[in-house]
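wait is this the right file?? whatever heres the structure
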């Protein structure tokens, strides 16, 4: 397959071979894709050359692929300290991969639940413009500081001014409730949306192992006490309705043929296992007549800790994957 970007490719800057790889229905989360320090790029290159000489290029590539993937699975890179203060973030590298698949350089990427600014950092590294909306000042400040630490030009702006800043090449943060901020963005003004919404009020569940560990370290276990925080809504149905309103607005601001990726995981609440990814997919399809589900990619998270949940009395699964729900505005 050609290594050139196909002249009729209007979506991204990938050659057909790279695009093909990205269509595989599962990805290993880049959280686990860090090479250990001893296995640096030079060593890999030397090893690869030696393999090529002794084994032939094709066999060498297959062996390298196996070696790298088995090493990659072993360890997650540590999250930076600022990012780790937030209880539910995603990996910049996974988001960068999505951004490179669904946009071209210079295009605009929106995250209506920006948290610590992971999407904006990923947009900056991929030479795209990120717009992030975040309700809670503490997380907005973490995002701002992380962008500053990475020497990324960023501004905090009102929704109505956002495109002016974006045109000047800055990453833009909006401190607001996504429900109102989205109304300030013009129709069809965004090329791609990638986000991870709150998981209802599940972070407030008492006794959850990860929450216990975070409490032990003095870290927050939920986003905020704000009544506008979607993660504080009591009823699951009401929560899904509010989420639907925001995704309806996403459908309006996304350009025609543009894509939206929503990253979610299923969860347990009491005795009930919620197929959250299915509920969110249904809500989104109903939220805007032109948003259509195009596929699901499973994001395998091998680096998460395994807990002996339920053992030896009952089966309780360790949820070690997320879903990337992929929609297109038709
Ligand atoms: C799953 S987290 C996103 C984390 C982000 N992906 C990251 O890597 O840092 C969801 C975020 O939505 C924010 N949020 C909750 N309700 C909101 C609302 N009404 N408008 C905007 N943001 C909201 C929370 O404060 C939280 O930071």
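ok assuming it is, sequence goes like this
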């Amino acid at each position: 397959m050609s290594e050139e970007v196909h002249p009729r490719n209007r979506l991204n800057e990938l050659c057909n071979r790279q695009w093909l790889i990205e269509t595989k229905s599962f990805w290993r989360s880049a959280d686990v894709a860090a090479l250990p320090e001893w296995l640096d790029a030079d060593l890999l290159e030397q090893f690869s050359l030696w393999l090529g000489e002794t084994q032939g290029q094709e066999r060498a590539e297959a062996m390298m692929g196996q070696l790298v993937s088995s090493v990659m699975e072993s360890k997650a890179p540590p999250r930076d300290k600022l990012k780790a203060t937030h209880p539910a973030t995603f990996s910049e590298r996974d988001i960068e991969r999505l951004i490179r698949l669904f946009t071209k350089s210079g295009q605009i990427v929106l995250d209506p639940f920006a948290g610590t600014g992971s999407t904006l950092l990923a947009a900056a590294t991929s030479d795209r413009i990120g717009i992030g909306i975040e309700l809670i000042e503490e997380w907005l400040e973490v995002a701002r500081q992380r962008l500053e630490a990475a020497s990324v030009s960023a501004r905090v702006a009102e929704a109505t001014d956002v495109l002016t800043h974006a045109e000047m090449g800055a990453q833009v943060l909006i401190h607001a409730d996504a429900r109102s901020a989205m109304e300030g963005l013009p129709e069809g003004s965004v090329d791609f949306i990638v986000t991870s919404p709150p998981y209802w009020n599940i972070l407030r569940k008492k006794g959850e192992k990860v929450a216990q560990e975070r409490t032990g370290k003095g870290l927050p276990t939920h986003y905020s006490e704000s009544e506008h925080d979607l993660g504080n809504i009591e009823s699951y149905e009401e929560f899904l309705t509010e989420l639907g309103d925001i995704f309806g607005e996403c459908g309006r601001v996304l350009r025609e043929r543009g894509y939206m990726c929503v990253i979610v995981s299923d969860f347990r609440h009491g005795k009930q296992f919620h197929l959250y990814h299915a509920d969110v997919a249904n809500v989104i399809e109903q939220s805007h007549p032109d948003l259509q589900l195009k596929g699901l990619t499973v994001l395998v998270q091998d680096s998460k800790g395994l807990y002996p949940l339920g053992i030896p009395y009952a089966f309780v699964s360790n949820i070690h994957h997320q879903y990337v729900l992929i929609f297109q505005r038709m």
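Residues 86, 88-90, 113, 115-116, 118, 133-136, 139, 177-179, 196, 198, 223-224, 228-231 surround S-adenosylmethionine (CB under 6 Å). so i think its the right one actually
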